[in-house]
TrEMBL record:
Name of this chain's protein: DNA repair protein RadA
GO cellular component: cytosol
Keyword ATP-binding assigned: yes
Family statement: Belongs to the RecA family. RadA subfamily.
Free-text comment on this protein's domains from its UniProt entry: The middle region has homology to RecA with ATPase motifs including the RadA KNRFG motif, while the C-terminus is homologous to Lon protease.
Molecular function, one GO term: ATP binding
Natural source organism: Aeromicrobium chenweiae
Gene Ontology BP annotations: recombinational repair
Keyword field contains Metal-binding: yes
SUPFAM superfamilies found in the cross-reference section: P-loop containing nucleoside triphosphate hydrolases, Ribosomal protein S5 domain 2-like
Record keywords: ATP-binding, DNA damage, DNA repair, DNA-binding, Hydrolase, Metal-binding, Nucleotide-binding, Stress response, Zinc, Zinc-finger
Length: 458
């Protein structure tokens, strides 16, 4: 008797295309979790030519009025997007749970509706009553704002046809499912199908669409990587739960820059814009304090003043502690080694703690010089001048390297009221950057530490 063989379906990774004969939870090629799913059947034959909806025309004859951005009513969001939302454009907003994604988009929906434009807010995570309670608290109730609690893709499309909105918000794309596709909502196949259907409707009808996306443990958008390729804009909403400050960054933007950030303050009655967040990262001391130094970091195109603090105490253990908060611990360790080698600061018996003020995350190399001055000041108990800013990257040979956008950084420091600056020597246009600040170019970290000479000891 001839034996019969069972043909197993092929499984493919949505991230890299790796295939296997059996399902696995983790891709064997790119090591991504939850991306392996049943491959779609391939039909034999060649695709035939088909009628087109609109013929191809010369690019000079393509109308661009329908693709111009429209202000959302929130200046910080429009700043990140490059002017506003685009009709027919699809935006994906990702962020950790509880960071304020729904609160921000509800405020966007309310301001869009107050301008007399229909808005549809589809909630797949909360009931309509729960969203209404939050809208009452934040003052986001308007007759042009339509609310629907729906988790079925077919129902979402029906709501779109019924309301005919100019702005659509789906919170979130991982909670919507389609009965025509296998898998549970949030799976790779379901997310791909839901996103494709919503994007197709948005492009066809010119609906500006905002999608909320969940994130994984490492901060990336959950679901298939193809989701980020399908949408026009990918925004990351960041913030520390211990701080009210929230930062909005553009990871991908087909309509504008990707080096802008928006600042928001999460308050009890909603979320408000912070057009000038500089003061949030600088503390005020009644008396001069050792172990502090102010620097200017670039968040996108926006210069922000931030304060670095350091504390050095005699260690009670054979292995001294090195603790950093808001700073890159590996760079801090490198700076401590440079101070020991080139400035004669002996830290072998000292615990060193470094931190940024206000929950700021300072990972730019330009803050190296401020970390070095703050640490040097803490060890020797010398007070840095209160009107001094330090900007520069520190190398392993003890040199101070040039940084980008130095003119913009110094202009921001001058606007806040700082009178002196320590910057890398050889930076272009130092004599024309500003006329009121006293700028001290330095070649090495040893020269930079001389700014503390003559300071009164505590």
């Amino acid at each position: 008797m001839a034996s019969t063989k069972t043909v197993r379906p092929a499984y493919v990774c949505a991230e890299c295309g790796w295939t296997t004969s059996k399902w696995v939870g983790r891709c064997g090629e790119c090591q991504a979790w939850g991306t392996v799913d049943v491959a779609a059947p391939v039909r034999a034959g060649r695709t035939q030519a088909a009628p087109v909806a609109t013929p191809a025309v010369p690019i000079s004859q393509v109308a661009i009025e329908s693709a111009r951005s429209v202000g959302s009513g929130i200046g910080e969001l429009d700043r990140v997007l490059g002017g506003g939302v685009v009709p027919g454009g699809v935006l994906l907003l990702a962020g950790e749970p509880g960071v304020g994604k729904s609160t921000l988009l509800l405020e966007v929906a309310a301001r869009w509706a107050r301008a007399g434009r229909r808005t549809l807010y589809v909630s797949g995570e909360e009931s309509a009553a729960q969203v209404r309670l939050r809208a009452e608290r934040t003052g986001a109730v308007d007759d042009n704002l339509y609310l629907a609690a729906e988790t079925d893709l077919g129902g979402v499309l029906t709501h779109i046809d019924t309301v005919d909105p100019s702005l659509l918000i789906v919170d979130s794309v991982q909670t919507i499912g389609s009965a025509d596709v296998e898998g549970v909502p949030g799976g790779v196949t379901q997310v791909r199908e839901v996103a494709s259907a919503v994007i197709q409707r948005a492009k066809r009808d010119g609906i500006a669409t905002l999608l909320v996306g969940h994130v994984t443990k490492d901060g990336s958008v959950a679901g298939p990587r193809v989701l980020e390729h399908l949408v026009d804009v990918v925004l990351q909403f960041e913030g520390d739960r211990s701080s009210r400050l929230r930062l909005l960054r553009a990871v991908k933007n087909r309509f504008g820059p990707v080096d802008e950030i928006g600042c928001f303050d999460l308050v009890d009655d909603g979320i408000v814009e912070v057009p000038d967040p500089t003061g949030l990262f600088v503390s005020r001391h009644a008396q001069p304090v050792a172990g502090t130094c102010v620097t200017v970091t670039m968040e996108g195109r926006r210069p922000l003043l931030a304060e670095v603090q350091a504390l050095s105490v005699t260690s009670s253990t054979p292995s001294p502690r090195r603790t950093s908060s808001g700073l890159d611990s590996s760079r801090v360790a490198m700076i401590l080694a440079v101070l020991t080698k080139h400035c004669g600061v002996h830290l072998g018996q000292h615990d060193v703690y470094t931190a940024s003020v206000g929950g700021a995350r300072l990972v730019e190399p330009s803050v190296d010089l401020a970390v070095a001055i703050a640490t040097f000041s803490a060890v020797l108990e010398l007070v840095a001048p209160p009107d001094l800013v330090a900007i520069g990257e520190v190398g392993l040979a003890g040199e101070v390297r040039k940084v980008s956008n130095l003119a913009a950084r110094l202009r921001e420091a001058e606007r806040i009221g700082f009178k002196r600056a320590v910057v890398p020597a050889g930076s272009e246009g130092l004599d024309t950057i500003t006329s009121t600040m006293s700028i001290r170019p330095v070649h090495t970290i040893r020269e930079a530490m001389a700014c503390l000479d003559g300071a009164a000891k505590l």
